[in-house]
Amino acid sequence: MNKETLRKNLREIPDFPKPGILFYDVTTLFKNAECLKGLIDELYDMYKDKGITKVVGIESRGFILGGALAARLGAGFIMARKPGKLPAEVVQETYAKEYGTDTIQIHKDAISKDDVVLLHDDLLATGGTMAAAYRLVKSFGVENAYVNFVIELKGLNGRKSFEEGTDVTTLLPL
Fold first, then answer.
1. Number of neighbouring beta carbons within 10 Å of residue 9
2. Which residues contact 12 (CB under 8 A, 6 or more apart)?
3. 152 is catalytic
4. Beta bridge partners of 14
5. Is 61 labeled as catalytic in the residue annotation?
6. What pTM value is reported for the model?
7. pLDDT per position as a tens digit, 19-61
8. Residue 62: which region, alpha, beta or left (left: phi > 0; alpha: psi -120 to 50)?
9. Are the C-beta atoms of 77 and 55 separated by less than 8 Å?
10. Pick the catalytic residue: 61, 81, 93, 152?
11. DSSP secondary structure string, 59-104?
């Protein structure tokens, strides 16, 4: 997928959700059939030979491409959610945010140590949520785990949230 096409179809919303923040809205990529297909195709090409057995989508925009990619890869799809959203027994990871903490959860029976896992979300900013989800996946004993984002905000150094050697890829660095 041409990065310029992605950039041209990405909506930027100034001062959302608070003043001083420039929000990158990926919903405009998803509503454009060419962009959506291109994103799925590119992600598939990146991961088709990695033996992925589970794709973990991070709440909530990570569910969209994560689910589509899992189907294309012939893998299962797992939702990583905020507390109170999953109906069965969960495992969780709590992480620090700028002001306080947050928690991410996965069903306790969602992943086995033999799985090869791809974690996907729309945007890498500071990396806190995905780093917590990555640690949670690794707590299942998983040896092979990959991390992917559509967009990376390079100036926020989110990659530093991951342990050295973590395979982190992005489609559109900004």
1. 17
2. 22, 23, 24, 25
3. no
4. 22
5. yes
6. 0.95
7. 999 999 999 999 999 999 999 999 999 999 999 999 999 999 9
8. alpha
9. yes
10. 61
11. TTTHHHHHHHHHHHHT-EEEEEB-TT--SS-EEEEEEEETTEEEEE
